[in-house]
Amino acid sequence: MEKAEPLGRSHSDAGDPGRVVDALRERGFARYGAEQLGITPADSAAQDLARIREVSADLPPDPYAPGTNRFRRYSHAVYLPWKDELSWIPGTPDPLHGTVTDFSQGEDAYPRPRRALPDIPEALRGNALLLRLLRWDIEQVLSLKDLGRRPLWAGVHLIRLGVDRPGQDAVSSPDCLHQDGGSAHTFTFAHLISRTNVTGGRNVIATPASAGLQPEDLWADIHADFTLTEPLDGYAVHDHRVSHYVGPVRAGSEPGPGERSILIVGVAPYVPQL
Description:
A hairpin with a 4-residue loop joins strand 2 (70-80) and strand 3. The chain has 274 residues and is an alpha+beta fold. It contains 3 helices and 16 strands. GO terms for molecular function: dioxygenase activity. InterPro entries: 2OG-Fe_dioxygenase.
C-alpha cells in the first residue's frame, strides 16, 4: 500500500517557485510539489487537505464516462487582476445534484457537445487550501502573460479514479496523449490530493504532434514520464505547446478499495460572448 508522505516533501524537477515559471516559459510544462507551493509540514493546510479528501472520496460518477470508474465535480471561478478578486460563478439548479456547471472541452482537438457536471460543493469553495492552490496557479499565468487588464477564467475539477477490487481499472478521458484545446493562453495545473492502494496513474508529457497517440506508440515524442505519489505533487502544462496523458490506475496489493484523487485547474483569459 502506498502511504502519503508528509506535506512539504517533493521530488519536483522544477526547483523554486521562480523556476516553475521558467520551466513553463522554456519547455511548456513544469513539475512542482508542496515545497514550491510554499507549504511546509507544520502548515495548517493539512486540515484543509483532509477536508478536500473527504469531498473527493464522495464524488459522484462522471455522467459522461460510464464504466470508467471515474468520479467528478466541476465549477467555474473568475479572477479580476486589477482588484485581486476571486469569485466562484454560481451553478445552474439541478434536481439530482443541487447545482451543475456547463463544461465544454476545447473544440480544437476533441469536439464534444456541452456537458453539465455536478458542482464543487458550496462548503468547499471557501476551503483555504483550495483557494491557495487556485490563486497560486493564477499567479503563474500572470507571471507568464501580460493579462493584468483581462479577467481570467478558471475551470476547477475534482477527479477521482477509484477501484474496488483486483483486476479492475479506472481510466481517465481521453485515454491517450491529448490537448485540452482552447486559446494559446490556456494553462492546466494538476495537484495530487490523495493516492491510496493503487498502481499506475502514470503521467506523460509529449509534443503537440503526439496528441492522439499512446505513450508506447513508435511516433510518440515524449518530454517527461513520471508518477505523482506525494500530497500536492503536481505539474503544469501550457496546453498549446505540449500534449499530456494520465494512465489507468489499478488496485494495489492491500485488501480493499484504492483511489487516486486530483485537483485540476484550467486557467485562460475570459473571452466575452456577445
